[in-house]
Every structure is written in structure tokens, then in C-alpha cells.
Design brief:
By secondary structure, the protein is mainly α. The protein folds into two domains: 1-55, no CATH class; 56-96, no CATH class. The protein is 51% helix and 0% strand. The two termini are 29 Å apart.
Length: 96
């Protein structure tokens, strides 16, 4: 997966573009060169480039808001009295 701020894996065998870091939406995504190499040979390059050209500010704003919500929710879960960590530490099975 692309990991900002970390040294990239040399010659990756499988790349998973997670969350919003997708080269068909954004520029300068880690490992994008592998994606575009495959896209050129896929027969769908024109379709992909058209999609990327139409991925505008409204989409980017939606991505930013979604990321903020995910981070906020993750913080709420981490701070909750009962979360995966506390249930695990108790050694009990419990529905969250």
C-alpha cells in the first residue's frame, strides 16, 4: 500500500491502493508508475484518463471530508470505555 513518508518497497509484487491514494484520481501517488504501466497495456487507458480528468474539486472535497470522519470515528473508538483493546485485555468475548 502507498505509505507516505516511508521508504517505498523496491519491485513490489502486489500494490493495494487504499483509501483515497489512487493514481486514477490523484497525481504523485506512491507506486503510480506501476499502475500507469499496466493501464497502458490494459486497453482501457482512454477510459481511465477520462475518469481522472473528470475527478474534480467536488470529489476531492468529498474525499477530505470522508477522511476526516474516519479519523474522528477512529479516535472515538480508541477513547471509548469498551473497545477492541479493552475487551481483548479482559480476555472475554463480547459483542461491541
Amino acid at each position: 500500500m502507498p505509505t507516505e513518508g516511508k521508504e517505498p518497497v523496491r519491485e513490489p509484487k502486489l500494490i493495494h491502493y487504499n483509501l483515497f491514494s489512487k493514481p486514477w484520481c490523484y497525481d504523485n501517488i506512491q507506486y503510480e508508475e506501476y499502475y500507469w504501466q499496466c493501464a497502458q497495456n490494459s486497453g482501457y487507458l482512454a477510459v481511465i484518463l477520462d475518469y481522472k480528468s473528470r475527478y474534480g474539486e467536488e470529489n476531492r472535497e468529498s474525499d477530505r471530508k470522508s477522511l476526516e470522519r474516519m479519523i474522528s470515528r477512529a479516535e472515538e473508538i480508541a477513547e471509548a470505555k469498551e473497545n477492541f483493546r479493552t475487551v481483548f485485555n479482559e480476555g472475554k468475548e463480547r459483542r461491541l
